[in-house]
Specification:
This protein has 328 residues and is mainly beta. The protein has no helices and 31 strands.
Length: 328
């Protein structure tokens, strides 16, 4: 079955905790995530897959916003979407401003083979005192394939500000993880023998007391890096048992178009653009979005103009209360 959803903001009990009941339903928005929003109103999550759904169960083109799970009866993992013992296809989604008392502030995948693509996880939080792992994403067991992810400005009280992996075998490719935070592993954290393959990533400006980019809690957990840029994650970006990435990885400023965040497109001079790195590949989720301004030319001939009244000596009305505040 295919269900097409018209643009709008959907809320109320009938529009959250959506459960496919094991069926291969294709839930598609007509005009994409920017115009089709599921607002969970901080009470419950958007979707719950726990009946063995396979890849024929598809969610495509939605924003899931304001999810919040904190009751044990509904599992306090996965504030926006929970996948447990199922493998739905998730693509072209935004999960934002969701919270979980457990793990996976935005999304949790448990014993799943899901393919997840073109997903943005932003401003989510895992806040539990013991299980607050994976501010954006948490993966327990299984072997999901994750590609085209933008994970930024998420927070975990414990481990994995962007993502936490426990006992899983996961591939994460062509993704950007930036501006996330946690106590350990500002971007990534691994535990219980997790095996993580990382290809063509940008991991930048994440923060943690231990391991700004990566924290491995135990020796059996391993990461295999290739053709990635790891930059600006603090003086000690690797913590626990973690080792620094191999020789084909970079530690250079990715040169985002907007320095203060939210726009993670790259300048044409970025080392993450294919023509500027030895791998010849695009690193991160976005390509070139701007051109660096060249140095301005030196001034030519000039002359001194006649004297004029100094405009700064003219009395002007006070701005103590009437003038607008400057924009930040």
């Amino acid at each position: 079955d295919t269900v097409l959803v018209t643009p709008g903001i959907y809320h109320g009990n009938a529009n959250k905790r959506l459960d496919f009941g094991g069926r291969a339903i294709r839930l598609l928005s007509e005009q994409g995530a920017a115009s089709t929003v599921i607002d969970c109103e901080l009470a419950g999550r958007g979707f719950d897959f726990n009946d063995g759904e396979g890849p024929g169960a598809i969610v495509d083109g939605f924003t899931i916003r304001n999810g919040h799970v904190f009751y044990e009866w509904e599992s306090f993992n996965g504030g926006g979407i929970r996948v447990s013992g199922a493998s739905p296809t998730l693509r072209n989604l935004v999960i934002e401003a969701c919270r979980a008392k457990g793990a996976g502030g935005g999304l949790v995948l448990g014993n799943s083979q899901s393919q997840v693509s073109n997903l943005t996880l932003r401003d989510n939080e895992a806040y539990g005192q013991v299980y607050g792992n994976g501010g954006g994403l948490a993966v327990f067991g299984g072997a999901p394939l994750l590609g085209g992810l933008l994970i930024h400005d998420n927070a975990a009280l414990e481990e994995g500000g962007a993502a936490y992996f426990s006992g899983s075998t996961t591939q994460l490719v062509q993704s950007t993880l930036s501006d996330n935070s946690a106590a350990r592993g500002g971007a990534l954290a691994l535990a219980y023998g997790a095996q993580l393959t990382l290809q063509r990533l940008i991991v930048s400006f994440n923060g943690a007391a231990t391991g700004g980019a990566l924290y491995e809690a135990d020796a059996p957990s391993t990461t295999t890096w290739s053709c990635s840029d790891i930059f600006g994650n603090g003086a000690a970006p690797y913590g626990g048992h973690a080792q620094a990435p191999g020789a084909d990885c970079l530690a250079e400023d990715p040169l985002y178009c907007v320095i203060t965040g939210l726009d993670y497109e790259l300048a044409d001079a970025s080392p993450c653009v294919p023509e500027n790195n030895a791998c010849g590949v695009l690193m991160g989720v976005y390509g070139v979005g701007c051109t660096l301004t060249a140095n301005p030319p030196a001034p030519g001939s000039f002359y001194l103009a006649p004297n004029h009244p100094n405009p700064f000596s003219i009395r002007r009305p006070s701005c103590a209360s009437a003038c607008p505040r400057p924009r930040r």
